[in-house]
Amino acid sequence: MKQLSGLDSAFLDLEDDHQFLHVSQLLILERPHADFEPFPAWRRQLADRLHQLEPLRRRLVQVPFGLDHPYWIADPDFDLDFHVRHSAVPPPGTDEQLDELVGRLVAAPMDRDHPLWVSHVIEGLAGEEGGADRFAILTMIHHSTVDGAAGADLLELMLDDVPDAEPPSHAGQWATEPPPSTAVVLARAAVNGVRRPARGLVLAARAGQSLARASRNPAVIDLADRVRGSLRGRVGSVLNIGRERDPDQDLPRLPPLVTPPTPFNAPVSRYRRFAHRSLPLAEVKAVGKEAGATINDVVVALCSGGLRHWLLDRGELPDQPLTAMIPVSLREGGEDEQWTNRVSATVAALPTDVEDPVERLRLAHDGLRVAKQVFAALPGELSPDAAGLGVPATVSAVSRALARWSAVTPAPFNLVISNVPGPREPLYLGGATMRHYIPVSAIADPVGLNVTVQSYVDQLDIGLLSCAELVPDLPDLADAIIGEFDALRATVRSGG
Question: Taking the model in full, what pTM does it have?
Answer without folding.
Answer: 0.85
